[in-house]
Amino acid sequence: MVAAGLLVFSFFTLTLGAPLVHELLHVHDARSAAPRGYQATGAPHPDTVLSLKLALKQNDPTGLVEKLYDVSTPGSNNYRRFLSKAEVESYTAPSAEGLAAVTRWLNKNGVKATPGATSQWLNIEVPVAKANTLLDAEFSVYENKDTGVSAIRTLAYSVPANVKPYLDFVYPATTFPIKVNKAISSVRFPSSNSTHTPRAKVDSSCVGAITPSCLQGLYNIPTKPATQATNSLAVSSFVSSFASKSDLKSFLGKFRPDISTATSFDVQTLDGGKNDESQASLEGSLDIQYTVGIATNVPTTFFTVGSDNGGDLDGFLNLVNSLIAADTAPTVLTTSFGFPEALVSEDLANNICNAYAQLGARGTSILFSSGDSGVDDGQGGECTVFRPTFPSGCPFVTVVGATQGTAPETAAPFSSGGFSNYFSAPKYQSGEVSGYLKTLGSTNSGLFNASGRAYPDVSAAGSSYQVTVNGSVTSVDGTSASTPLFASVIALLNDRLLSAAEQPMGFLNPLLYSRGKSALNDVTEGNNPGCGTNGFPAAAGWDPVTGLGTPDFNKFLSLLGIS
Fold first, then answer.
1. From start to end of 277-357, where are the E strands?
2. Residues 12, 47: contact at Cβ < 8 Å?
3. Each residue of 84-116: pLDDT tens digit?
4. Which residues contact 70 (CB under 8 A, 6 or more apart)?
5. In angstroms, rounded to a whole number, what is the distance separating the alpha carbons of residues 448 and 91?
6. Cα gap 192→190, rounded to integer Å
7. Residue 290 confidence (pLDDT) above 70
8. How many other CB atoms are there within 10 angstroms of residue 311's CB atom?
9. What is the pairing mode between strands 389-390 and 410-411?
10. What phi and psi, each to the nearest 5 degrees, are found at residue 220?
């Protein structure tokens, strides 16, 4: 059985000191039942210790979002004048009275809190018996018969009235472990079978096998090495998705003979993560080979997140908080993993999304794959309505879909896209999305939330990527391919901006949905079937399969006024 629950170990309740102070508690969070697959199997030992995180409410999250848009919107006087770490913290730190109220409550009950990764978080460790009394909860052992995952959770908890206004949520009290989705649609042996013909600038060999030179021709991506040491490209990895430097060396020798095979990447670990190069994965190899192999000479760091946490959601949360806590944020962050939105609690989804806003305000371009399940979310089972993915619905990230073929590019049928049920449509995309919905008419009526944040924002080639894994070349499809590719384009553009003594691109979406459309190739054919339907059709302008389209590096240079 896999143990993915809360950290547990033997503990004597008397070591926590003072007895609990009884006071009237008010329900703060509750769910009607455990998620599908989980069943309560009994009570944990009362001395089993739970590691809980308390998310305190930020003092001015609305102000931070306003500042994010101010520094990210072309035409603003503060466009690309990004905030410092300290300036961001002035918006996100809890109020002094809020921190005092929560701390007093814990101290009265003999619970000592320690600082979390950022000022918004407090960590506590309490035995089950005390947690049940402190939070008026009923922590139980839940097991998922399908996955073998075991976790200690409660279906509800309460806090005092004087704490409630200052506490966002207790994590992971009511949040159950869920499996992260890799955005790889399929793995195939290399094949030359295709019904598409290549563009004039793309070699005929690219019809059935996409390599770096194919992408350079397709999107005018330069081979010229980047020069700016302050530029940085962060690649996140979860669920033991390792990358091998020897495979990268082989890949570069075969597909990028114009650069040194000694070109490599740095590794940073989190939550007990490692990069076991003897167990290189398809996902990790794809992400590294199409960042290092495309964003020539851009300093690239592979962040590998381990399992010393309460599940893959913890990994997402811990990674973004560690990046926020760092003195220097990466200029680009690319992630090819995600979750079914419905399985992520709404308060946690908002918290993670707001964390991405913090990085964006500091100048980080954050890109996520949309997923590989069409209008579904990848959790399996039947769907009677379209099911969105997370964090695709977060308005502060740039979501990447996938295309196939070269002349013309058409929507890849696996490319996930749709509308969030948690996040409303941001102003920057309202015009494009309303235009699409008008064209769509009654198609798929009632199957999606037409007022939700729509995704993807952009797309790129996502089929037949040639990847070297354990010395052998494999062909891969997925938005896991298109996302690091688009991130690499942004990283190379940042290099040109920094060379011109300008700031990097930062949060991309306000630019993309306005002037940025001129630097994208519109994709108007194809659809993304799922849930017993043909899904959404691609169309002129934005659509929920390919977004606004695929990148053209030279057009972006003109758009940014650089060479």
1. 300-305, 332-335, 337-340
2. yes
3. 999 999 999 999 999 999 999 999 999 999 999
4. 76, 78
5. 34
6. 7
7. yes
8. 22
9. unpaired
10. 60, 35
Residue 181: what pLDDT? 72
Q: Among 306, 318, 242, 310, which Cα is nearest to 269's? A: 306
- In the chain the first and final C-alpha atoms are separated, in Å, by 56
Contact indicator for 340, 375 with CB cutoff of 8 Å: no
Question: What span, in angstroms and rounded, lies between the C-alpha atoms of 499 and 501?
Answer: 5
The first and second tokens of residue 18, run together, are 């003072």
pLDDT tens for each residue of 468-512: 999 999 999 999 999 999 999 999 999 999 999 999 999 999 999
* pTM, full prediction: 0.92
Specify whether the CB–CB gap between 173 and 153 falls below 8 A.
yes
Q: Are strands 337-340 and 389-390 parallel, antiparallel or unpaired?
A: antiparallel
What are the residue numbers of the active site?
283, 287, 480
User: What pairing do the DSSP bridges indicate for beta strands 465-469 and 472-477?
Assistant: antiparallel
Q: What are the residues whose beta carbons fall under 8 Å from the beta carbon of 86, sequence distance 6 or more?
A: none
What are the pLDDT digits (tens) for 215-257? 999 999 999 999 999 999 999 999 889 999 999 999 999 999 9
User: Average pLDDT of the chain?
Assistant: 92
Per-residue pLDDT at 185: 52
**How far, in Å, CA of 444 to CA of 434, rounded?**
15
DSSP state of 15: G
Q: Using the structure block, give the residue that is written with the tokens 């402190």.
A: 134
- CA gyration radius for the chain? 24
1-12 mean pLDDT: 36
What is d(CA 444, CA 221) in angstroms, rounded to the nearest whole number?
A: 37
The residue whose two tokens read 């570069």 is 252
List, edge to edge, every strand of the sheet that includes 2-3.
2-3, 149-153, 140-144, 38-42
